[in-house]
Amino acid sequence: MKALWKKGLDVRVSIIGMVAIILLAVFAPLIAPFDPLKQDIQDRMQPPNRHHLMGTDQLGRDVFSRILWGGRLSLTVGLIAVAIELVFGIIIGLISGYLGGAVDNLIMRLCDVMLAIPGLVMALFIVAIIGPGLTKVMIALGIGSIPGVTRLVRGATLALKDRDYVVASRAAGAKPSQVMMWHVLPNVLPPILVLATLDVGTIILAGAGLSYIGLGAQPPSPEWGAMLTGARDYFTVAWWLSVFPGIAIMLVVLFLNIIGDAVRDIIDPWLRQVRG
C-alpha cells in the first residue's frame, strides 16, 4: 500500500476518491436525505437547489439520494461480476496450463471462440438467453470476462509448472490439486489482482450500458445506468438528470483505471520475471 501511495498525486487522489465513493454507497441509508424511490409530483423536475442538491427527476425523486443508493448497485455489479470471472477463470486456467494436452487445447479453443466476440456483445447474447435484470447482468458480464482471466492464468501456469520447487513438490508425491493450490496459485495471483482492478471499472461501465438499453436494472431501481435511461428524454429540459449519474460513472471508472495502472507498474518486475 505504501508503494501504491508513493506512485503520484493522481494515484493518491484516486484512492481517496474511490474510498469516499465506497463509503458514500455503504452509508447511503444514513446519508441520503430522501427515500430514493419516493415520488413527489409537486417537486418534479426541480433544478439543483439547497433542498435537492442535484435536483429532482420527472417523478419528483431526489437525484442525489438516488445516486448514493445507485452507487451500491453499480459497485455491486462490478464486484460480483469480477468475483465470477476470477473464481472460474483461475480454476479453468490452472487446469488448462497444468494438465496441458487435449484438455488445454479444448479449453483454449473455447476461449478463442468467446474472445472472438466483443465482450459487450457476448454479455448481450447471454442476457438475451437468461433474461434481463441486474442479477442476470452480473452473471452475464462475469461469464463474458472468464476467457481473459483463463488465458492469463494459463500462461503464468505454463511458465511456473516446470520451476524447480514445483517439480520437487511433484517428486515428493503431491497431488496435482495440491501443487496448483499451494505452489502455482500464489505466484499467479499478482497479475490477476491487476487485471481484476482494471476489470471492475470496465464491468461497471458495461453494466451501466446494459441498464441504459433496458437489459440491466429495471425501473424504479436507482442504478446509474438505469437513471441515464430515464433521463434521455429530458436532456434538453433537465440536464442534471443525465449529467450527475454520468459523472458518477466516469469518476468510478477513472479512479479504478488509475489505481489499476499503478498496481500494474508496481508488479511489473514480477511480470517480467514470469515472461523471462
Write a concise synopsis of the structure shown:
The protein is an all-alpha fold. It is 75% helix and 0% strand.
Architecture blueprint of SSEs:
Elements: H1 2-5, H2 9-26, H3 28-31, H4 63-99, H5 101-115, H6 119-130, H7 134-160, H8 164-171, H9 176-212, H10 224-231, H11 240-275
Structure commentary:
The protein has 276 residues and is mainly α. It has helices at residues 2-5, 9-26, 28-31, 63-99, 101-115, 119-130, 134-160, 164-171, 176-212, 224-231, 240-275. α6 packs across α7 and α9 runs antiparallel to α11.
Keywords:
75% helix, elongated, single chain, 276 residues, MetI-like fold, mainly alpha, disordered C terminus, 11 helices
**Mean pLDDT value:** 87
In CATH, the homologous superfamily goes by the name MetI-like
Uncertain runs: 270-276
Strand tally is 0
